[in-house]
Amino acid sequence: MSTTEPTTTEPINDSLDGALLTAARGRRSDHLPVWFMRQAGRSLPEYRARRQGTVMLQACQDPDLVTELTMQPVSRHGVDAAILFSDIVVPLVVAGIDVDIVPGVGPVIEAPVRSLEDVRALPQLDPAGLDFLGTAVRRLVAELDSTPLIGFSGAPFTLAAYLIEGGPSKDHALTKAFMYGRPELWDELLSALAEYASVFLRVQAAAGASVLQLFDSWAGALPAAAYERYVLPYSRRVFASLDDLDVPRIHFGVGTGELLGLMAQAGAEIVGVDWRVPLAQAVSRIGPGHPVQGNLDPAILLADWDVIEAAVREVVGQGRDAPGHIFNLGHGVLPQTDPEVLTRVVDLVHSLPAR
Amino acid sequence: MSTTEPTTTEPINDSLDGALLTAARGRRSDHLPVWFMRQAGRSLPEYRARRQGTVMLQACQDPDLVTELTMQPVSRHGVDAAILFSDIVVPLVVAGIDVDIVPGVGPVIEAPVRSLEDVRALPQLDPAGLDFLGTAVRRLVAELDSTPLIGFSGAPFTLAAYLIEGGPSKDHALTKAFMYGRPELWDELLSALAEYASVFLRVQAAAGASVLQLFDSWAGALPAAAYERYVLPYSRRVFASLDDLDVPRIHFGVGTGELLGLMAQAGAEIVGVDWRVPLAQAVSRIGPGHPVQGNLDPAILLADWDVIEAAVREVVGQGRDAPGHIFNLGHGVLPQTDPEVLTRVVDLVHSLPAR
Questions:
Q1: What's the pLDDT tens digit per position in B218-273?
Q2: Which chain B residues touch A176 with a CB distance below 8 Å?
Q3: CA A281: distance to chain centroid?
Q4: How many whole angstroms from its chain centre is CA A41?
Q5: Do the Cβ atoms of B297 and A257 come within 8 Å?
Q6: CB within 8 Å of A149: residues ≥ 6 apart
Q7: Contact residues on chain A for B254, CB-CB shorter than 8 A
Q8: What's the rounded Cα separation, in Å, for the pair B309 and B344?
Q9: What is the largest CA-CA distance in chain B?
Q10: In chain A, whose CA is at the least distance from the CA of B308?
Q11: B-chain residues within 8 Å CB-CB of A314?
Q12: In chain A, where the domains are located
């Protein structure tokens, strides 16, 4: 017993410490790092138990709850990173915009932003309103020890889409009509939202987040030319505002196969890839020098283990050409996913050669 | 006057006659043919007026109404083809499955298909139940004169997605879980639905439809490997069943940028492209020998004319490398589109050199 004591007091995943940051810096470590988008969420019974009786947007602003919910999947699955428990629209909420998350629907904006007056009336995001966020991040960083915390924010385009549509949308027609039809007002709106995202991310970095992810959930709705003209400049502004921090940044959107090359120019080191693009293909579209994150189809986790295992191995194999690879799903964990399968995927990814 | 009489009795778009079929056969005519997905629909005041008080799925089975609604955009816009007024789920309805189209939601299936028993209980699609369809197509062909009629059906995967989810879905998780998790049952289901699509399309061709389009609306939700294994064989079966007809076929899905090369192998001559992929890129992914259809972002039609015109010219320019190009949107006309803009787009496309 006594001879093994010193090693057993080490963290259980000691050999993995730093795997995520190593990959994020574009280098290969012995183990491939892995985390899951929406790992803190409805797939976990402990999450559902803890969330009972709470309202989503209040939960996101409660440092105790944020800390606990963020920690749950780290303790359970042994993932290589925690992701702050939050929601894309929290920067809007904190700015004072009336948002409600309606179960089964998604975020609903009380007064959609569609006119010059609406845009001009948008409040500034006061960092003073973000105390809860700094507190949660500081607690998490202390509790996580060497496991990195990923902070995140919704990207300007995705925030704009929620504001303009007033809620989730299938075709984003109102957003695109605004964008194509009123480019000057669009510039004002996206500039304001770039500032929101920047403030929201800086607070997290200042409190100790090791990595920052900018989620542009709906960017994939756009043709590449429109993305380049109407979206990229504002995402670029967000990343540029973080350049001084020396914190690796991830840029991700869904259905962005045609946009990967442009997204790689926004300023983030790491580009996240959804499950539609074979990862090797994505690596070539993204271009040299960028680590990638992704990209297992979340729905594959609902299949039998042999199907899952083959798919995980395929993704790991395809990621080998990138300078660094952070294994993840191509979008969030589906609520009906068996959490034991997630743990098994973590173990499998850790068991595979990372180089 | 008398000298011009013989020519003025010709159809007004005489010079365009055959443009669609020429492009569909992979050749270039003087004018680029153009039609719009969902051209018979809510963008037209005459459509809204005529549909008032009718239920969608009943309207789709009423030959008088189908004829009238199909003709409306042809008369108004001077497009180069009519598309049968119908709905993706009509083959299910005609087979006797209880489907309701709920306004603002979409098709809702009373009893979703999720078990072995459900799949085995699926009725066959009896061509005898399709009299309304043959009648409508025959009337249309007579009325349309030289303008071709495009018949259509939902593809097996998309029909399966509706049946399994019980309605529209954001992530198609149940469908994918079924597909990845129960491949043998999936084969039974997709085989039955391939038969539905085949019967539905053959009836239209027999009644005189000049072109057939297989819509796989949701195929873009799948990674390419899954599409190839679980979807392509059944779409291929549908097209193979039409091989004897000498009717050009179009295959289209939304968000299928990564699938274009595979979709081109399904057996259709023409591959439709959504707006996310630059058309020249799509042409190269589809490979040689296939005319293409597409791919203006439908939301661009909500912008100012100069934005629209530039985008139309861009699409036309990018399509020049394909052996044939049928100009279309990358998805259906949005309901809020100004119909006069659609007419103006038709005129613009017709004014541009097609080769």
A1: 999 999 999 999 999 999 999 999 999 999 999 999 999 999 999 999 999 999 99
A2: 297, 299-300, 302
A3: 21
A4: 13
A5: no
A6: A70, A81, A82, A83, A84, A137, A140, A141, A208, A209, A210, A211
A7: none
A8: 9
A9: 73
A10: A180
A11: 225
A12: 19-351
Report the residue of A37, A164, A165, A180 to disrupt the B interface, i.e. the one with the largest count of B CBs within 10 Å. Answer: A180
CA distance B227 to chain A (A): 10
Write out pLDDT tens, residues B150-194.
Answer: 999 999 999 999 999 998 888 999 999 999 999 999 999 999 999
Which residue in B47, B76, B139, B162 is the catalytic one?
A: B162
Q: Measure CA A265 to chain center.
A: 18
* CA pair distance A262, A222, nearest whole angstrom: 12
Q: Is the pTM of this model over 0.90?
A: yes
The interface predicted TM-score (ipTM) is: 0.89
CATH class of A19-351: alpha beta
Q: Kindly report which listed range (A9-13, A104-108, A142-146, B59-63) carries the lowest average pLDDT score.
A: A9-13
The answer to whether the CB atoms of B176 and A299 lie below 8 A apart is: yes
Tell me whether residues A224 and B278 touch, CB distance under 8 A.
yes
